[in-house]
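ugh ok fine here u go
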Amino acid sequence: MRTLLLTLLVPGLLSAQSVPSPAPQHGQRPARMMVRNALVIEGNGTPASGPRDIFIEGDTITQIAPSRAATANQPAGTAVIDAQGRYVMPGLINMHAHFQDERAGIRMPADYQLKLWLAAGITTCRDLGSDFAKSSVLREQSKLGQVIAPRFFLHRTFSMPPAPRTPDEARERIRQFKRDGADGVKFFDLYRDIMEAALDELHKQGLRGAHHAAVAETNALDDSKFGMTTIEHWYGIPDAALENGVQSFPADFNIAREIDRFRYSGRLWREANPDRLKMVLESMVKANVAWDPTLNIYEAARDLQRYQNQPWFPEYLHPALERFFAPNPEYHGSFFEHWTTTDEAFWRENYRLWMGAVRQFGHLGGTITTGEDTGFIYNVYGFGLIRGLELHREAGFAPLQVIQHATANGGKTLGQGHRLGRIRTGYAADLLILNGNPLEDFKFLYPPVGNQKPGIEWTIKDGIPYSVPKLVADVKAIVRDAKKK
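structure:
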């Protein structure tokens, strides 16, 4: 009688306490959502904490609080994910991505790549130089929740033909990219006067820069002097630490021939002077130049057989990628026509020195991020980034540091440190609901192979929950259909 009287006197009490909470729907953003009883990894390097309840309204985290009893009140209609015994961490930020809808002239459905990224927990991609018209549409559709995809930050390629030849042309190109709606600019090899003008204009226009330096007149010291945002891979860093200013190439070396380029880039780090390298790294830290090492993308060079026989290939490798990966001088990165035991030995040493430099950079206070550069060199979308996290661990970083590289550091480097990369009130609702502890094993983040239980149960991007089992089933169906054709 007393319960009935209270119900009559307090409108909404029955709906708040008695109506079952709805389950989240794949691909549909609820007005309100609650992730309950979670062990939370914030993304800023601090330890896991829980159990906690995470409250989401629309696309934003509105509150994080110690978990209450399962019968605690929540507004009627709140979608609930019970994360009892599960870890919850921020969505991953892929700082070196390429949207590709074909490989080797064979079309690939956009869903293949986009759903794989989400299935691997990637909620944000910095796209470095893809087809800008297509990527711009995708960026807007993702922002509006009209497509199943991560969010995108788009960098245009500075050297697209006709490449700027003078400082004035360099400035105009940057201004044009700003008018077109680019978020930043990707640079390759540059002359010093062109670089100085381009980066000066870049800062004036409020854009960000990513530098894949190659072997060129400019290197990491110029990046520090003129204010580049990130250095990609490693190019330009050991180059700036060479005793003689140039690597010891053989007389018949041709940098335009990819087998030469990759063979001898595997012998570069051993020529860098350690004292000079420390000076280069310190200059980067002082100038706030971040390093996005993409440790996964060249690993095939140190262990080719491993990469040619990855366990996820049968279910997840699209025939277009398979064709593109096969040795062929027409396709960038498909250079393994005659890759030798000696090449692998040099690259193993190269990795040891490269990882040591990344570790030293981190110890000096440098900002390290994670990117995968997949679609090349036997790397499949999403899988490449998770392998990169494992390699950051191999390089000597603690698991909490690695997760910080892949979350908060990415948000900071994108200029979105107030909004992306952390589980914090006021931040975007980008969350991964995990069936295991990523601090123990990053393999929980890989999409499942065979009959494995998915490590990630839900990927939430902008408050939109995506069921990972549903995503991987869609991707596997795409691959099966493509193989039939």
